[in-house]
């Protein structure tokens, strides 16, 4: 089946989906994005991702492209037209099309909106999670507002490529103090030597992960001890467990970091349990 994209008010064949050459997303990475996982044709963590999209737009002073209700309709229609049962739907909103110039274009310039959807079988991620994945570390060279989900992802791309070239699934960013910030497209977690769950506190140096927030709620329900406190690479390597969270990876156990085995080298019980709980809740509550 040919894929369908939504581009600025129209549903078009994926291969014919285009934006103007002077779209500010292309020229300046002047835009934001969001991703929802799709379960049984329904969107997971819908309100959380939509609220973060609105916040990202507001932080960059980009106009909202449509109402929340209208956007929900368009997202769901894109999923339906692509017949996605398990997978994801992606939205990118830029400041629009205007003559190339660094300052914002004239007030009233409409934002550009692109939405795509694709199938991604849950079984593939489940197989990865059952085995565990490798993680490497990379210097964090990103800008200072990582709390905004912008399309300016070149440092993330370079880190993810470094991971791929070393046979790893993800790269964890490390700041100038030797502390892990987050992954190239994920939030980083450990179960430390004392058995406490730890993940970095959400300031401007990491993204406020929607899956991260959902997992934190599950941790509270399970009565587990959690500290929002940064950890070093050495602490991560000595941890009982390590894992990362994201909208597409859910809860993914990491069994090695920079080649160092974590715990017994197998997915740990806490990460495994949290993944099962998250998937159950996400599928149940998807809209």
Helix content: 25-40%
Helix-strand makeup class: alpha+beta
User: What sort of overall outline do the alpha carbons produce when their principal axes are compared?
Assistant: globular
Termini, distance in Å? Answer: 24 Å
Q: Bin the strand percentage.
A: 25-35%
Tally of DSSP β-strands: 15
Order of helices and strands: EEHEEHHEEHEHEEEEHEHEEEH
Main sheet characteristics: 9 strands, mixed
What's the tally of helices? Answer: 8
Low-pLDDT windows of residues = none
Radius of gyration based on Cα positions: 19 Å
- Overall pLDDT: 97
Highlighted features:
287 residues, globular, nine-stranded mixed β-sheet, six-stranded antiparallel β-sheet
Q: Can you summarize this structure?
A:
The protein is an alpha+beta fold and 287 residues long. It is 32% helix and 28% strand.
Question: How are the SSEs placed, and which strands pair?
Answer:
Elements (H helix, E strand, L loop, with lengths): L3 E4 L2 E4 L10 H5 L2 E9 L2 E2 L2 H14 L8 H14 L4 E9 L17 E8 L2 H10 L1 E7 L14 H12 L4 E5 L5 E4 L3 E5 L5 E3 L10 H13 L3 E3 L4 H6 L2 E6 L3 E8 L2 E2 L7 H17 L2
Parallel strand pairs: 7-8, 7-14, 11-12
Antiparallel strand pairs: 1-2, 1-6, 3-4, 3-5, 5-6, 8-9, 10-11, 10-13, 13-14, 14-15
